[in-house]
């Protein structure tokens, strides 16, 4: 699909936030999705750019899978996930003929798509663009940061789980942020204990507090802990708005 390059496509985007994690499966896409929902809850207009090319899960989490990306004179029109058009989403998931198809691309093709995602999507006016990145610190991260850099200061939200291994990965993420000039907004510890749906008690399945300790050591803000919550898993699977259903949840307080 060829789009007409339009350098001004991000000109009306006020804040750009990259969501990073040291490894996969720690809840980066979950946090990106819940962050967008939390911002919408506060009346903001939000775009989500899913550059996790090999694991695009956000269309599913927002019940937008199977929707089509259209073209206008300014490039690709992102998919609106709600009637009010307050959350728009662009993902490689919309460009694949079969959503279960694996993206087996070499670096240059991935870089070209990332560049196109940045220059060719007609986001319009947005308060926030949330960018869900692949796990780790890869060439794709470099390509994303380089493509987005002209559009203003870039914030970074780093997601970790409490285990030491994940916390070690976060150290590398923070080094990446420092070297590439990303402004770390803060660290979120996800899957921090298990929230029992029956008695609301939180059990520490893994060790606890690693994220907070690391944030202190690294001198970055600690934004909060989000427990493993079966209701959150269900909301994500069914594409429901967890933040609206549970505005007093730990997820909302960490993200607002
Ligand atoms: P990543 O993007 O880091 O690979 P995901 O956001 O896709 O990870 O999360 C992996 C799985 O864990 C998903 O099925 C998601 O629903 C679930 N999950 C993530 N965080 C939580 C949480 N706090 N509570 C319950 N389930 C969660």
From TrEMBL:
Please give the PROSITE patterns that the UniProt record associates with this protein.
Answer: MRP
Residues reported to bind [4Fe-4S] cluster? 196, 199
UniProt cofactor(s) = [4Fe-4S] cluster
**Does Chloroplast count among this protein's keywords?**
no
| Record's keyword annotation contains rRNA processing | no
Cofactor detail note: Binds 4 [4Fe-4S] clusters per heterotetramer. Contains two stable clusters in the N-termini of NUBP1 and two labile, bridging clusters between subunits of the NUBP1-NUBP2 heterotetramer.
* One GO MF term: ATP-dependent FeS chaperone activity
Q: Which residues form the signal peptide?
A: none
GO CC field: axoneme; centriole; centrosome; cytosol; nucleus
Its biological purpose is as follows: Component of the cytosolic iron-sulfur (Fe/S) protein assembly (CIA) machinery. Required for maturation of extramitochondrial Fe-S proteins. The NUBP1-NUBP2 heterotetramer forms a Fe-S scaffold complex, mediating the de novo assembly of an Fe-S cluster and its transfer to target apoproteins. Negatively regulates cilium formation and structure.
UniProt subunit comment: Heterotetramer of 2 NUBP1 and 2 NUBP2 chains. Interacts with KIFC1. Interacts with NUBP1.
Tell me which family the UniProt entry assigns to this protein.
Belongs to the Mrp/NBP35 ATP-binding proteins family. NUBP2/CFD1 subfamily.
Q: What is this protein called?
A: Cytosolic Fe-S cluster assembly factor NUBP2
């Amino acid at each position: 699909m060829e789009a007409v390059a339009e350098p001004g496509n991000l000109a009306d985007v006020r804040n750009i936030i990259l969501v990073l994690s040291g490894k996969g499966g720690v809840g980066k896409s979950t946090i990106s999705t819940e962050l967008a929902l939390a911002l919408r809850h506060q009346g903001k207009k939000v775009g989500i750019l899913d550059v996790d090319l090999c694991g695009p899960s956000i269309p599913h989490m927002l019940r937008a899978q199977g929707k089509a990306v259209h073209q206008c004179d300014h490039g690709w029109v992102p998919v609106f996930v709600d009637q009010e058009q307050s959350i728009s989403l662009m993902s490689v998931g919309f460009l694949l003929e079969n959503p279960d198809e694996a993206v087996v691309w070499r670096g240059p093709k991935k870089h070209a798509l990332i560049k196109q995602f940045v220059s060719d999507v007609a986001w319009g006016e947005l308060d926030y663009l949330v960018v869900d990145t692949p796990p780790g610190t890869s060439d794709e991260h470099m390509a994303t940061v380089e493509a987005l850099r002209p559009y203003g200061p870039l914030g970074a939200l780093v997601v970790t789980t409490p285990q030491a291994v994940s916390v070690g990965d976060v150290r590398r993420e923070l080094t990446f942020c420092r070297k590439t000039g990303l402004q770390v907004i803060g660290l979120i510890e996800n899957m921090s204990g298990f929230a029992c749906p029956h008695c609301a008690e939180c059990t520490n399945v893994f060790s606890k507090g690693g994220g907070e300790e690391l944030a202190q050591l690294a001198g970055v803000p600690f934004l909060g802990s989000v427990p493993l919550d079966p209701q959150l898993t269900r909301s994500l699977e069914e594409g429901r708005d967890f933040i609206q259903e549970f505005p007093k949840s730990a997820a909302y307080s960490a993200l607002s």
